[in-house]
Amino acid sequence: MRNGPAWSQQAKDDVTASKEILKRVFKITDTDTAWQNLVWAPNFGGANHNPKYAAAVLYNLKQAEPLGATEVLDALRDLGKRFNKNDPFNNGR
Questions:
Q1: Are 8 and 51 in contact (CB under 8 A)?
Q2: What single-letter DSSP state applies at residue 11?
Q3: pTM for the full predicted model
Q4: CA 7 to chain centre
Q5: Are 78 and 48 in contact (CB under 8 A)?
Q6: Domain residue ranges in the chain
């Protein structure tokens, strides 16, 4: 996920924090092209790249990170399914 130019500072911080989790868990440096990140976020016209979803991704990654890489990947897959269907979700805020 990348920051949109008009996003709030909070949304930009959410994206940065999510990327840091992916870097730690998967030992990667480039989160924009890492397959682990692309599992949840194929860019279908940008529909699932917005501040609301950035907050939900961070919330879910924070919940999964202590459980390990498999749980983080499962969380990303679940997010991808939900976002691609435009399902409602609770981002913890």
A1: yes
A2: H
A3: 0.81
A4: 15
A5: no
A6: 13-84
